[in-house]
Amino acid sequence: MTGIQKAFVSIGTPNDDFQSLFATHPSPMWVYDPDTLGFLIVNNAAVELYGYSLQEYAGMTVLDIRPAHERRRMLDAVHGRTDMEKAERWTHLKANGEMLEVLTYGRAVRFDGRDAILAIVQDRTEVNAAHREVSDTRSLLDSIVDNLPVGVFVKDMAEEGRYILFNEACGTIVGRDPIDVVGKSDLGIFDRKQAAAFWAQDTKAFTASSTVSVEETIRRTDGESRILRTVKRTLPAPDGSLPRYLLGISQDVTEERSVEARLAYMAMHDALTGLPNRAFFSEHIERAAKIATAETAIALLYLDVDHFKHINDSKGHAAGDALLCQVAARLTKLAGEGDLVARLGGDEFALLVRLDQAGSIERFAERLLNSLSTPFNLDGANEHVTCSIGIAIAPDHADDDDVLMRHADLALYAAKESGRSTYRFYEPTMRLEAERRHMLTVELRDALLKGQFELYYQPIIQLDDDGLGGFEALIRWRHPQRGLIPPMDFIPVAEETGLIVPIGEWVLREACRTAAQWPQHLKIAVNLSVCQFRHNSLLASVVSALDESGLHPGRLEIEITESVFLADVEQSLPLLRALKELGIRIAIDDFGTGYSSFSYLRAFAFDKIKLDRSFVAGIETDPGNLAIVRAVVGIGSGFNATTLAEGVETEEQLQRLQAEGFGEVQGFLLGRPMPRAEAEAVINGGASRLLSVARG
After folding, report:
1. N or C, which end of the chain has less CB nearby within 10 Å?
2. Nearest to 543 by CA among 575, 500, 569
């Protein structure tokens, strides 16, 4: 029997109740000798907690259950009795080497007739771990709050709103160290006005027990203004009593609002000129049109820079942009206070002008024309441009913004149609003309689908042998109600709407298909418009028409005007050269009516020069026209190009042109445009019959 077991027996004999209570008590306990430090009694809970058996305890001292760094402290405590009658924190060792955090309570007792110490142990490992976890959590939360990118603060409303929490982000926002803020109220930090505003927000959040959200501008201690968005609400009391604390979360949105303002500005202003854009203009005119009266009338002016594309094509887009900026500056300078100048896109500007007296808008329009007539400096060179202006007045012409804008647009269209470099006021007839053009556009689409177009053919006579050289194909529209419509009545609308492209393609295919049935020496001339040259599919359409019809390329003659070069010379020249490489003949039509015909003759080797009919008329009596005729013959000879005179209507004109050496002629004297059947009758009869009729 071990010493400990004997002790239990001996202690149990006089007091069985003590032994039973000691052995079964849930708290680990033991009795040890303060001199030898050996264990005298160990209860079951100690055996279970530490993992040592009763036999092992019999040979151990209380130093054996302590790590090395705790043993000196234990010896000092035993010798000095410093751990008696009070709880002490210790670290103990279990049998498996695991450390325990314990709280021990020592008391002097008599055991087996000698002095001993009773130690009662409380395992604090889990409790301490829980405390550390709480402490760590609190530290983590403090760290999170302190490092949040948004400001977090808490006020004690029972202490005049003094701050009890003020994180680093808050300090950065207001420009103060959080240490200097905690314990103070708003009056100790901000100026009186700002502090009063904060107190009003706090009071509202408390009295209404609701969340208060506000965005405001504050001034930092360094004088810089910042925009804050703050949300405030009361913190509920844990015990259910009335709330005492106010939580606030603030975010500095200065940069965010700056970006939003910049984006809003960009959304409403033109990036190139800085003027208000179409979106801004639309909102402004909507309000202005609603309040316009006879006494407070307004004028809407739409302005286009005439032939702006020529500047872009000849000098480049940078020069075009510079021109637009200078135009914007001149318009802004002329506009009065309260007037609006906007760029709607491209070279189109809009002005909304208040009318202060009768006739003022006419004078203003004249000033605009005069201002823009002054040369513009583009890369050191003076460039002259003009503009076209359309004007509509509210409420005279319309009291609705959409209608007013449509009327101004119609007036602008009329200004362009009347020769540009002028202004036009809206008139009701313009709307009727617009409706007519719209209806004509609808009918043109229908005509293309239903095959209502026809080709007429005008003979071309060769003067060197009086032979028939071929025909010029001219389109006609056989309208189901209005009968045969000449091209001058619908071609402009077709070009304006882009319908000229599919219509022109039909003309090309039909002309090639018809000419392929004629004798091999006859040519067919087809006019191509500017719009067709701008279309990327033109070359493919020509090749396709030749392939499908079987017409030899040398029998096809393409007629163009100078406007093809004016539209886009960089695209036109390569396309013309590609057509000519196919073997197609290229003729310049209406020669002499443009201001730069000779420059295009140098840029491209035309096969034919067609003198405009205006120079043929009066050739018998006008020496000037005759001089031009002779000059064209010389030009044709110099460039090795055939010369053709249009509009021959008299025998004398025919003789004079033949005498001057013109190669070909056409005109009513020799044959009007005729249907295919009549043209083929001419082919069968020969050109001599036409000449004999023309010469009487």
Report:
1. C
2. 575
Q: Where are the alpha helices (DSSP H) in 477-557?
A: 491-497, 500-515, 530-534, 538-549
The confidence band for 465, taking pLDDT boundaries of 50, 70 and 90, is confident
- The domains of the chain, with CATH numbers, are 3-128 (3.30.450.20), 148-257 (3.30.450.20), 269-426 (3.30.70.270), 453-694 (3.20.20.450)
Q: How many CA atoms lie within 13 A of 489 on its CB side?
A: 14
As a whole number, the mean pLDDT across the chain is 86
Please, which pLDDT band fits residue 6 given cuts at 50, 70 and 90?
very low
The DSSP result for 286-317, as a single string, is: HHHHHH--STT-EEEEEEEETTHHHHHHHH-H
Local structure of 593: helix, strand or coil: coil
DSSP letters along 654-689, please? HHHHHHHT-SEE-STTT---B-HHHHHHHHHH-HHH
Residue 380 φ then ψ, to 5°: 85, -5
- Three-state secondary structure string covering 605-636: CCCEEEECHHHHCCCCCCHHHHHHHHHHHHHH
Alpha helices in 115-253 (DSSP H): 125-147, 168-174, 178-181, 192-208
In this prediction, residue 234 has a pLDDT band, given cuts at 50, 70 and 90, of confident
